[in-house]
Design a protein that fits this description.
The complex is a heterodimer of chains A (257) and B (126). Chain A is an alpha+beta fold and 257 residues long. Chain A has nine helices and nine strands. In chain B, strands 1-2 form a two-stranded antiparallel sheet. In chain B, a hairpin with a 5-residue loop joins strand 1 and strand 2. Classes of the chains: A alpha+beta (257), B mainly alpha (126).
Chain lengths: 257, 126
């Protein structure tokens, strides 16, 4: 009798252990299958992700029309000192916009060619994660927005942004604005600012002012989640580049070079 | 005896010092409440006058968060009229001069706002 009891006990506990292990592995497998990997997120037309394609082959080195239009629309101050510069859309040498693309044997002209740069409106932005007050955040349409009311000027976002797209108002910007447009607020001293993809214009069904102004058709704007949009067609028809894609920020600005 | 003189004299002096504002202030000029002029040719305010008097700051704060953080720019008033949630357009369209309209009460009540550090009215730009 005693022997049989022990045997039964071992049988039951063994079966229980097996069932337990099986259940746990089943659950784990299910969660692995169910989770989306960051590169294969579901994209639907309905969920907008605004993006831009910049064709640098068409951009003229001496033209600054998009920059001027942006600065007028958004009351961007012009501090003459480059250390105080406020950048929304700006031109920077190619070697600085794409620092990790090999420039070996390329001529000086290629390295120094002015490239258009602006906030990449990343789908996984580091700036929003470091902001302690929630002053910068991702909108559902993919735009990384600033709430100037909440900015305390700690500049963590500037340290977090790998593209240098953010600028700090070291001094009162009002006197440095040539003509203030009352349709958009100015900023005050001690606030960070950056390109906002013309959120306020998109809500009126207008294109961003840089895109609208460019006479050469350098800038194309549209919904990256819509396979029929102009931006998607451009990206699919030729090789394009994003800035520092290896960081996993998933920029929404693409370059044709 | 000398102590009693000191005590009562001191008390009288103290009472005089404390009541100085009543003796030497200008009693003839009464406090004037601010008089606000409203451009009523453009219709009625987004909400009733009583509501706006009591709650304009809460309404503006809600508008601010709705517009900046949630992209919701349309205000439907309690009587069904539709407005843009905008300080420098909807509000300032009627209350054109912010110094006169906002500034009067705020300076009387010593309320310090920082709206105008950034926002600009069309009147200021001209």
């Amino acid at each position: 009798m005693k022997k049989n009891k022990r045997r039964d006990f071992l049988k039951i506990s063994g079966a229980g252990a097996l069932a337990g292990v099986g259940l746990v592995t089943g659950l784990i497998e299910k969660t692995v299958v169910g989770s989306e990997s960051p590169t294969q997120r579901k994209t639907t037309k309905e969920k907008i992700r605004w993006g831009m394609v910049i064709d640098m082959n068409k951009c003229r080195d001496d033209c600054t029309k998009c920059i001027d239009a942006c600065h007028v629309t958004h009351n961007v101050p012009d501090f003459v000192n480059p250390k105080d510069e406020i950048k929304w859309i700006y031109k920077s040498p190619r070697k600085k916009v794409f620092p990790n693309i090999s420039q070996e044997f390329s001529t000086k002209g290629q390295k120094e060619k002015p490239f258009l740069a602006l906030c990449n409106q990343c789908a996984d932005p580091p700036c929003t994660k470091v902001c302690p007050t929630g002053a910068t955040f991702s909108r559902p349409d993919g735009i990384v927005q600033m709430d100037f009311h909440r900015c305390i000027g700690c500049r963590y976002c500037m340290a977090g942004c790998p593209y240098g797209s953010r600028s700090f108002n070291w001094r009162d910007p009002r006197p440095a604005i040539k003509k203030i447009d009352s349709a958009f607020p100015t900023r005050e001293r001690g606030v960070v600012e950056k390109c906002n993809f013309c959120v306020e214009r998109l809500e009126k069904n207008l294109l961003p002012s840089c895109v609208e102004t460019c006479p050469e058709g350098v800038l194309t704007f549209g919904n990256l989640n819509d396979p029929d949009s102009n931006v998607r067609k451009l990206i699919e028809s030729q090789p394009t580049m994003q800035r520092k894609p290896e960081l996993g920020t998933r920029p929404s600005v693409f370059y044709i070079t | 005896m000398i102590e009693r003189l000191l005590v009562y004299g001191g008390l009288a002096g103290f009472l005089f010092l404390v009541s100085i504002p009543f003796w030497f202030s200008d009693q003839s000029s009464k406090h004037q409440p601010p008089s606000l002029s409203v451009n009523s040719s453009k219709g009625h305010c987004v909400e009733s006058r009583a509501f706006m008097r009591a709650n304009h700051m809460k309404l503006l704060e809600k508008w601010r968060d709705d517009v900046v953080r949630h992209g919701n720019r349309i205000h439907v008033s309690t009587d069904g009229r539709v407005f843009q949630k905008s300080l420098t357009h909807t509000c300032i369209d009627c209350h054109e001069n912010r110094e006169e309209f906002c500034g009067q009460c705020h300076s009387t009540l010593n309320v310090k706002t920082y709206c105008w550090e950034c926002h600009v009215t069309p009147l200021e730009v001209q």
